[in-house]
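Hello again, I could really use a second opinion on something today. Take your time with it, there's no hurry, and the full record follows here:

___
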Amino acid sequence: MERDGRRSVPPASACAGLAVLKIRRPRLGNGGLTLYVYTYKLDSVTKLSTQIKLEVAQTCVHANLKRTLRQITQCFDGALASSGLHITQFTLLTTCSLKGASSVGDLAAQLALDQTTLTRNLKILLRDGLVELKPSAQDARVRLVSITPAGEAAIARAYAAWRKAQREVTADLSLEEYRQLLSLLGRLQVAC
């Protein structure tokens, strides 16, 4: 922030996405001091340049991660197809197995999902008898998700296919690169 006397003046760069014109007009103040009044004229940008569009297309973290995730998901789903599970179901079941009986809210937080998405995924697993949903003994309003013996068997059957897909996806990475990838992904999760 630029400072003009006691008043903060936002820099033109703070108005991202807007064309900014900064005009400085002198105004006489008390005691012969000259005060400056800053006026910003903001015009909405209606079209981005090709250069900016290319920057977005090539460097957008979200777009690049989403594209990569789609390809990786297809690889895992293809490998797991014979088990009858999708990768999202496999990781959900594995998390349920590790955590034990958990509330839907806690499970959603653990998986970084909103409760609606988690509930939609759980309905399939409930239908197939892979998880069960019971009210908490402490608070009947809280529903606890638990993996069933059939769910444990499903992740055991799918493990070899998951392991194969995991090796395929990471084949071009050294062990150090793989560790760096996990570390960077963890840092990105914390950043948001």
The CA atoms of residues 40 and 147 lie 59 Å apart.
